[in-house]
Design goal:
The protein is α+β, with helices and mostly antiparallel strands. The chain has a domain at 92-212: Glutathione S-transferase Yfyf (Class Pi), Chain A, domain 2. It contains ten helices and four strands. A hairpin with a 2-residue loop joins strand 3 (63-66) and strand 4 (69-72).
């Protein structure tokens, strides 16, 4: 049975972290809102989220259906899929460490979002441009180096070598870090210029993921939507500046 992934159509967004894991594993999945039919499309996603009779309704996408089970939140979904897709260690201790890394990525992605929506998600970007400029300047100066520096150190301290963030096999966190770097380079090209020299281990990890056969094929396919200014990683030239 195919997994069912529910996320907003037209953007990569947070759903992309789950897609990368499914694509790398060659898993059978349905991107529900991108398909047509009576039980497909955005309407099908909203129907699940608005089901007042259900005790396991998700608050927001992305969420994943595996049979009757619904799993919500990116880190939680990847924690669930990790062992099933051979993208996480089998030992509980190592799995919890990996989950902690993914949760740190979740924090980072939330801060990325807040660069263009620092006041409220209910307001348009145009309603908070000045605040977004101030937030982005601080993000570029303080938060990008803090987070990327942390992940660079984690890779450097991996006792199994520096090819992966944890252990000696590819994990879903490697895939997520690839997506973070891709997104940051789209959103803040000036700020990220020269980052490959500042964070060489992260750059090597990014390149390794990009060259994996299933990921390379996915990136060339029409399933990989382009970054755009409706997603989490948005490029507004006025928010970008050299680090």
């Amino acid at each position: 049975m195919a997994y069912e992934l529910y996320y907003w159509d037209g953007i990569q967004g947070r759903g992309e972290f789950v897609r990368l894991a499914l694509e790398e594993a060659g898993a059978s999945y349905i991107d529900v809102t991108r398909e047509s039919g009576s039980d497909r499309g955005t309407g099908a996603m909203m129907k699940i989220m608005e089901d007042s009779a259900s005790a396991d309704i998700p608050f927001a996408p992305p969420f994943l259906k595996d049979g009757d089970l619904i799993v919500s939140h990116v880190a939680n979904i990847l924690f669930y899929l990790g062992a099933k897709l051979d993208l996480a260690p089998k030992h509980d201790t190592a799995r919890y460490v990996l989950n902690g890394l993914q949760l740190t990525i979740t924090d980072f992605v939330a801060e990325v979002h807040d660069t263009h929506h620092p006041i409220a998600t209910s307001l348009y970007y145009e309603d908070q441009k000045e605040e977004a400029k101030a937030r982005s300047a601080e993000f570029i100066k303080e938060r990008i180096p803090k987070f990327l520096g942390y992940f660079e150190r984690v890779i450097a301290n991996n006792p199994k070598g520096t090819a992966h963030i944890s252990g000696d096999k590819l994990t879903y966190v490697d895939l997520s870090l690839f997506q973070v770097l891709e997104g940051l380079r789209y959103a803040f090209p000036k700020a990220m210029k020269g980052s490959e020299k500042q964070y060489p281990l992260l750059q090597a990890l990014h390149d390794m993921v990009e060259q994996r056969p299933n990921i390379a094929a996915y990136l060339k396919s029409d399933r990989r939507l382009a970054f755009n200014i409706n997603g989490i990683f948005r490029h507004y030239p006025e928010l970008d500046q050299a680090a």
